[in-house]
Design brief:
By secondary structure, this protein is mainly beta. The chain has one domain (16-133). It is 0% helix and 59% strand. The protein has no helices and 13 strands. It has strands at 16-20, 25-32, 35-38, 41-48, 51-54, 59-66, 68-71, 74-81, 84-87, 92-99, 101-104, 109-116, 126-133. The strands form two sheets. The protein has a seven-stranded mixed β-sheet, with no helix packed on it. It has a six-stranded parallel β-sheet with strand order 1-3-5-7-9-11, with no helix packed on it.
Amino acid sequence: MAWGWFDRKRHEPAEWTGFLEQGVKVEGKLESTGTFRIDSAMKGTLVSDDTLVLGEHAVIEGQILGNRVVIAGRFDGKIQAKGRVEIQPNAIVTGEVHTPCLVIEPGAVFDGHCHMMAPAEAAKPVMISIRSASGQR
C-alpha cells in the first residue's frame, strides 16, 4: 500500500512534512523540516532538522546533513548526523558517516568510514573503518 509508510508504529511520532515516491528523480538540494521520506532517485544534498527516511526504493548519491537518518535503500556519499543513523536490513551504504550513534541491522551492508563523536567530544572524532555484510549467507 502506497500510504503504508504513514504507520507510526514503525517510526517515532513526528510531523510528516512530505515524501518523494518511487519513479521521481531529483538533482540538487532538498531542505526539510519535520519527517521526510524519500523512495526515489536523487543526486545532491539533503538537509533535515528532524528525521529523514530513505525508503527501500531510494537510490541516493551525495550528502546528508541531518538529525536522525534511517536508511532502508541505497546511499553513497557523506552523512553528518547530530543524532542517530540507522542502516536497516537490505540497505547498502557506502561512504562516510559522522554521528554519535550508528545502528547497523543484520542484513545491512556498510562499506566506508564511521566517525563517532560523543556530544561533549564533538571536536575529537574517533575514526573507525568498517566493512560489514552482516547476515549474508
